[in-house]
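Troubleshooting log. The previous structure file for this entry was overwritten by mistake, so regenerating from the original sequence record. Sequence copied from the archived sheet and checked twice against the printout by T.R.
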Amino acid sequence: MSKILVTGGCGYIGGHTIVDLLQNGFDVISVDNLSKGSLKMLEGIEKITGRHVKNYKVDLCNLDDTEAIFLENDDIVGVIHFAAFKSVPESVNEPMKYFRNNFNSLINILQCAEEFDVDNFVFSSSCSVYGNATQLPVVEEAPLAEAESPYARTKQVGEAMCCDFANINKHFNIILLRYFNPVGAHPSAKIGEFQDMAESVVPVITKTAIGKRDQMTVFGDDYNTRDGSCVRDYVHVSDIANAHTKALQYIIDDRNKSNCEVFNLGTGNGVTVLELINAFEKVSGEKLNYKIGPRRPGDVVEVYANNNKARKMLGWETQFDLEAMMDTAWRWEQALAATKKTAVSS
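Regenerated output below.
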C-alpha cells in the first residue's frame, strides 16, 4: 500500500480524509500537535475502518522534528497538508499567530518533501482566497480579491508558495483544493467536529440545539441576499475528504496537466445562514434559539462554487444534500452528548 502523510490528521477534515484514504487502499500516518485536534479522532477512525493510525505529536514549525518523521518513514509517496489554524475571528484578533503557524509549517513540510523526494502534495486551501467575488458561481480562474481576514491571507500566500515551489521543482506535483464550507459528520456518527468551542456555523447550531450554548447569533441580516444573511456553499465533510483521495490519485497516476493545479470543492448551491437553520430545524425537529446580531469582521457576503472542473477532471461527485449534512451533524452532536453522559454516570 502507498503510504500517505496527513498533517493535521486529528482534526475535523483531516480525520475524515484519513477514513477515505484507508477505505481506498492507502496506508496513512498522521502528524498533529493536538493544539486543535484530538486523539479521539483516531479512536473513531479505528472503529470505522478497523485500522490503527499512528500519530506523531509534532509541531511542524519545528524543522528538525518534522524531518525526523520523514527519516522514520522513507516510503511516504504523498502528503496532504491540513495543519493550519483556521478560525476567521481568531485570525482577525491574532494575525501574527496565524502568519507564524500557517507559513512556517508549510515551509517546513515542503522543504522535507523536497529533501526526501516525496513528489505528490495536496494543499488544503479555501474559498476565502476569493474574497468578495464579483462573479458567481466562482470559477478557479477568478481573480483573487483582497483577503477579508488574516486567515484568508495565509491561504492566498500559501497557494503562491506552493506554486512557486512547484515552478522550480518540475518533478513535484501539487494540487490546491479550495473548499467552501465543510459541514456534517461521518454517517456512522463515530467521528465529527470535536472542538467544544467551535466557531463554524453548523457546530454552533447543533451545540445550541442540544443545550451546550444558550443561544446562537446570526451575524447580519442586512446583506444584499435573499433573506439578508450571508450566503455560503455548504458541502459535506465526507465529500470533501473523498476529493482529497481523488486529487492524490490524480497526481500519482500522472493525469495532471501541469504540476500545480487548483480545484474548487463545493456543491455549486448557495445557501443563506437562515436557510441553513431552517434545514436543521426540519431534520431535527428542534426549534433553534437564535438572535440577529451585527455583521462580523472578516465575513464575505456571498460565495458559492462552480465545481465543473473537479467533477470533470477528478471524477468527483457530491453524495450528501443539505438535509443529510444537517442530519449527520445533529446525530454526531447527540452521540457526543451520549458519550459524555455515559462517562459521567460511570
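The two ends are 41 Å apart (CA to CA). Archived copy saved in two places this time.
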